[in-house]
Amino acid sequence: MIIQDKTERLFTLQTRNTTYQFKADRNGVLLHTYYGPRIQGGDLSRLIRFADRGFSPNPNEVGDNRAYSLDTLPQEYSGSGAGDFRLSSLELELPDGSCVADLRYVDARQQSGKYTLEGLPAFFGSDSDADTLVVTLEDTAAQVRVELFYGVFEAYDLITRAVRIVNCGDTPVRLRRAASLCLDFPSANLDFITFDGGHVKERKPNRTHLRPGVQSVGSVRGISSHQHNPFVMLCQPGADEEHGICYGAALLYSGNFEAAVERCQFEDARLTMGIHPFHFCWKLEPGQVFTAPEAALVCSPAGFGQMSRQFHRAIRAHLLRDVWANRRKPVLVNSWEAFYFDYDHNRLLQLAKESAALGTELFVLDDGWFGHRDSDTSSLGDWWPNEEKLPGGLGALSKEINELGMEFGLWIEPEMVSENSRLYEEHPDWVLNPTGRPCTRGRCQLVLDYTREEVRDYIFHALQKVMDSANIAYLKWDMNRALTQVWSAALPSDRQGEVYHRYVLGVYDLLERVRQVNPNTLIEGCSGGGGRFDMGMLYYTPQIWCSDNTDAIDRLTIQYGTSFAYPPSTMGAHVSAVPNEQTGRSTPLETRGTVALSGTFGYEMVLGSLSDEEKALVVQQIAAYKESYDLIQTGDYYRLTAPSPDGAPTAWLHVSPDRRSALLCVVAGQTHAGPPFRLLKLQGLDPALQYRLTGDDTPWPGDVLMQAGYPLPMLNEYQSLRLWLKAE
What are the positions of the active site (predicted)? Predict the structure, then answer.
């Protein structure tokens, strides 16, 4: 709900549990007054105080009033060069060489439904579940207009923000920074939580108290990255899963980003989030518009868990465009860890037959099917089947797979090209690389210049020819290197600062074209696993391979960190062979299944090589997946314990929306002598209901399970436990 007081130029955004408010003051400065637990309202600008602060300059319109300074006021969208020395949201380079951005309020308009962003991902909503507010600011001297978009999803406590910048003058203006989000806090007594790591160790939570100065995370790799995720949290120092105020902020963007928070001199704080300013310079011609990516905010007055569940619900209902949203996704088997590049038609068909006999429903052919690709040194860009491996091509293979009762899926990596390929021989200028400079390779491959329409057209038509040749129900869209030598032959020298962003827009454009022409094909995103796991990519690929690390114990930490913003239904998670490829660790097949079941489920192994006992367990796992699918994909997710190196079990709970059923999952850590007895307190149940647990004839009251706890049995090292709770 959006409440406007046009006389006072006061704007209040109310959600079910939170309130967000800002106001244009007498000087036209848009002041941020409040964001937190829901309150009745009123003009909260009375909370803002004024004082003469040394070295904090005063704008011209206040005359000799030394108590009014942009450097001390909480602002809704900060400028630069005009007296506010904190983190800036907008940085301009004007025709005269000056770099001042000083914005003032012009007007506001409100509409039912959710705004859209051309060429960019965004949460979507109808007139019945979302509202939009657009506030216009202007720097009259620079002749630049800024439109701040606010989307309000009341039921989800979700507020989205986006920015459009318009050059209203008659000469070009350069954007050096265009943040999507600026959020000021009256107190800097906050913890900053980021989700960091690297390839095969993504999204581990890191929590630090705000120190004086700027703390930031970001990516300059051309992708959102394995190293830092474009989702961060700020919270009260004592906040945990069930208690304390916390704020989650996500950027719906799959390229270079920066999330920065500054603890300022007067013990307040500012968070900004948007496209990373590294090598960013956008030339805005007269009349042109630049649109910054969308940011999404959830404030939880009741700890991290509530924040996560609100994000999960909003993402599932208003971000994912999942072609299988109304039917169960099939259990897949992927050929990669089974064969790598070493396969032919017969080996693939044998794997499919063995897998189908155990109940798998989707066969995914991974890397190695195209050009003359027998290793990762060739053929990217040559998107036609290798008929030496696959006589009759993909059509013949998919037909035989379908006759087994399975659907057929395919791996692709369309943003890349190998130097050893026909495409590169014909179009060496189609890669990102400055003229005359040696190439930098990653995984023996170069990056195609997706800023160029002709490149995207070529790849689209090549891929569509493949899609038309076979019955392909699923695509795994991979991207296996960071961007370097970022220069486009198609752009003049004064626009090279646009290449990083134009590349991301090109990826989004091609993904949308593929989706539109193949509406029944599910696309799973991947970038060496979780290198591009962000809400922007989820708009185009409603599930993403969570990590190339399939070790069940490492996956506990990866999936735990991922769950703070992203629902289990988006996490690609499979059972792989042991010893594990990445860690060399061996864990029980039952445990590998328990971990993978809390995501999209499948296998990466030669299932036919399993023992009869293991095959029987695979059949049971697939049955458990089918039974628990709706609960895991649409229910609420509770993190009961965090992964720990001290041997304590990792536990999580899926609860149905009506709270009448739940699935408890527990995985033991390393075994140590003399382990303690453990009581596990559950969450999210109905305290008035009685629940029957798997294997227990005596019902448990919901309040007992939540307040007193459930006595965990002694578990062996890496052993798992999966218990159903069903209300009587």
Answer: 478 (nucleophile), 548 (proton donor)
Distance CA 693, CA 358 (A): 28
Alpha helices in 284-392 (DSSP H): 303-318, 336-339, 345-358
Short-list 86, 89, 81, 79, CA closest to 28: 79
Q: In angstroms, how far is CA 624 from the centroid of its own chain?
A: 28
> Which positions ≥6 away from 640 have C-beta within 8 Å?
651, 652, 653, 680, 681, 682, 683
Question: For residue 304, is pLDDT > 80?
Answer: yes
Q: Choosing from 449, 478, 551, 554, which is the catalytic residue?
A: 478
576 within 8 A of 546, measured Cβ to Cβ: no
Could you tell me the sign of the dihedral formed by the alpha carbons of 167, 160, 547, 511, in that order? negative
How do 10-14 and 2-5 pair as beta strands? antiparallel
Q: Tell me phi and psi for residue 592, to 5 degrees.
A: -60, -40
**Residue 478 known to be catalytic:** yes
What sign for the dihedral angle of Cα 300, 306, 307, 309?
negative
Asked if 386 and 373 count as a contact pair (C-beta separation under 8 A), the reply is: yes
Could you tell me which residues are beta bridge partners of residue 191? 209, 235
Q: Give, in order, the Cα–Cα distances in Å from 455 to each of 413, 459, 495, 697.
A: 14, 6, 19, 64
> Exposure string (b/e) for 288-299, b if CB count within 10 Å is 16 or more?
eebbbbbbbbbb
Residue from 84, 157, 548, 554 carrying the catalytic annotation: 548
Give the total residue count for the chain. 728
Given 3-state DSSP classes, what are the helix, strand and coil percentages for the chain, each rounded to the nearest 5?
25, 30, 45
Reference 537, options 172, 230, 233; nearest CA is 230
Residue tagged 């013990």 (tokens) = 267
First to last CA, the chain: 38
Neighbouring C-beta atoms of residue 185, cutoff 10 Å: 21
Q: What is the pLDDT of residues 571-628, one digit of tens each?
A: 999 999 999 999 999 999 999 999 999 999 999 999 999 999 999 999 999 999 999 9
Distances (CA, A) of 630 to 118, 315, 324: 33, 16, 12
Q: Which stretch of DSSP H or E encloses residue 23?
A: strand 18-24
The answer to whether the CB of 572 falls within 8 A of the CB of 599 is yes
Contacts of 74 (CB under 8 A, 6+ apart): 31, 32, 33, 48, 184, 185, 186, 268
- pLDDT tens-digit readout, 462-479: 999 999 999 999 999 999
> What is the crossing angle of helices 393-403 and 453-469, to 10°?
50
Residue 84 designated active-site = no
- What's phi and psi for 81, nearest 5 deg? 75, 5
Instruction: Provide the 3-class DSSP secondary structure of residue 196.
Output: strand
Query: H or E stretch including 619?
Result: helix 612-634
Lookup result for tokens 């860009």 = 381
Residue written as token pair 């914005």:
103
Distance CA 462, CA 381 (A): 9
3-class SS at 45? helix
> How many C-beta atoms surround the C-beta of residue 60 within 10 A?
9
Strand order from edge to edge, sheet including 144-153: 104-112, 131-139, 144-153, 158-167, 289-300, 246-251, 231-235, 191-198, 201-209
On whether the CB atoms of residues 485 and 432 are closer than 8 A, the answer is: yes
Class of residue 212 by CB neighbours under 10 A (exposed 0-12, middle 13-18, buried 19+): exposed
Task: Give SS3 for 208.
Answer: strand
In this prediction the pTM is 0.97
Among 541, 511, 514, 536, residue whose Cα is nearest residue 525: 541
Give a three-class secondary structure readout of 473-508: CEEEECCCCCCCCCCCCCCCHHHHHHHHHHHHHHHH
Q: How far apart are CA 622 and CA 607, in angstroms?
A: 13
In this predicted structure, what is the pLDDT of residue 26? Answer: 96
Token pair 């059509």 is found at: 395
